[in-house]
Specification:
Elements lengths: L5 H4 L2 H19 L6 H20 L4 H17 L8 H15 L5 H21 L4 H86 L2 H29 L6 H16 L3 E6 L7 H21 L5 E7 L3 E8 L16 H11 L3 E6 L5 E8 L1
Parallel strand pairs: 1-2
Antiparallel strand pairs: 2-3, 3-5, 4-5
Helix pairs in contact: 2-3, 2-5, 3-4, 3-5, 4-5, 4-6, 5-6, 5-7, 6-7, 7-8, 8-10, 9-10, 10-11
């Protein structure tokens, strides 16, 4: 059957309809009352067209459709000549089956019904049969067509539902694939941020230590560089752990993590770091939390580099639509040593990280000569 899947054609309901139709047609021809030979040949020709349709439906859809139309038209042409109801029964079986086929358009079904009704009417009129037979033949054509269209509608709805289900499954697979690619990208970004910064800075410090030992014999300077390398390694390890925690979605609360950074900064640099909070604290997505912590860490590093000894204030603001963190340092108490190695993400990395979570970063000098870093992220 044209447009019908093999699984559908092998379904029990399909087989029942086809076998039942074949049995009814065959029994109708066999039990027909004695009739002229030519009339029996018409019956047999209609039955043969039905059988050929069954055999060619899946391989030759257009040819099989023509055979089915012919199988209904032949008995319609001899309704007036049939001494019993054989022609009417054959017409009803074939036309009703055609009306049930989802692969046949409504236009073709309607045209075949009209053609069969016209042929039956002409047959009755030419042989001067009663008007009741004419009306009965026309009513029969219309009735079996409407009767067949009802299951056809349900079959088409079922096929449409299967198609929608398949499309939904494909869309879900594509969404899952896109989500996996996004997750891979996030993992790669986290690992790159950690390894590129930590290992890069560590390599530079060790290279400088090697030069100081071999070329200059500066043991004290080399030891200082080794200590700084050890500190970088420790910070890199801590950052790697935070990245893994972010990937596992178990990042510590923002306020707790910021307080920990402030305490570490105070311990390392001996400056006062005040942490304040405004608004009602709430959980944030792990990506947003990691972004804010990275920005705070870099801002503290820059404050230690460019404003050594200056106190720092960190303010958390939980607004209705976003969360804002401001890191503000006072003017430096002494001239900074610009020869120190810069640590952290860097301003460009900070902006990139904030942009990835849909936030914004603002850096500007304060009125008293200090510096302010403000980061906002949705949440």
């Amino acid at each position: 059957m044209a447009g019908t899947r093999v699984a559908d054609r092998l379904a029990p309901s399909w087989l029942v309809v086809q076998v039942l139709g074949t049995v009814v047609l065959t029994a109708t021809v066999v039990t027909a009352v004695p009739a002229p030979t030519w009339l029996l040949l018409v019956y047999l020709a209609s039955l043969a067209c039905w059988v050929l349709w069954l055999l060619s439906a899946s391989r030759l859809p257009r040819t099989s459709l023509g055979l089915l139309v012919l199988a209904s038209l032949l008995p319609a042409l001899v309704v007036g000549a049939s001494p019993d109801g054989t022609a009417m029964i054959m017409l009803a079986v074939v036309l009703g089956r055609m009306a049930m086929l989802p692969s046949v358009t409504v236009t073709v079904i309607g045209a075949t019904t009209a053609l069969d009704a016209l042929a039956a009417t002409a047959s009755c009129v030419l042989l001067d049969r009663p008007l009741s037979l004419v009306l009965g033949a026309v009513a029969l054509c219309v009735f079996v067509t409407l009767l067949g269209l009802h299951p056809r509608h349900h079959q088409m709805q079922a096929a449409h539902s299967r198609q929608l289900l398949e499309q939904t499954r494909l869309a879900q697979r594509e969404q899952a694939r896109a989500a996996a690619l996004d997750e891979r990208t996030r993992i790669a970004r986290e690992l790159h941020d950690v390894l590129a910064h930590s290992l890069g800075a560590l390599g530079v410090q060790l290279e400088v230590a090697e030069v100081l030992l071999i070329d200059k014999g500066d043991v004290d300077g080399a030891v200082e560089r080794v200590r700084r390398s050890r500190r970088l390694a420790a910070e890199g390890l801590a950052e790697a752990r935070r990245a893994v925690a972010a990937l596992r979605a178990d990042v510590v609360p923002l306020a707790e993590a910021v307080t920990s950074l402030a305490e570490s900064h105070h311990s390392d640099h001996g400056v006062d770091v005040e942490v304040t909070s405004e608004g009602e604290p709430r959980p944030l997505p792990s990506a947003a939390t990691v972004c804010l912590l990275g920005t705070v860490r870099e801002a503290l590093t820059n404050a230690a580099k460019h404003a050594p000894g200056a106190p720092v204030t960190i303010t958390l603001r939980y607004n209705a639509a976003d969360v804002q963190v401001e890191v503000r340092n006072a003017p430096p108490e002494r001239v900074p040593n610009t020869g120190e190695e810069a640590e952290g993400y860097g301003l460009t990395g900070m902006r990139e990280r904030v942009a990835l979570v849909g936030g914004s970063l603002t850096t500007a000098p304060t009125e008293d000569g200090g510096w302010s870093v403000i980061v906002e992220v949705p949440g």
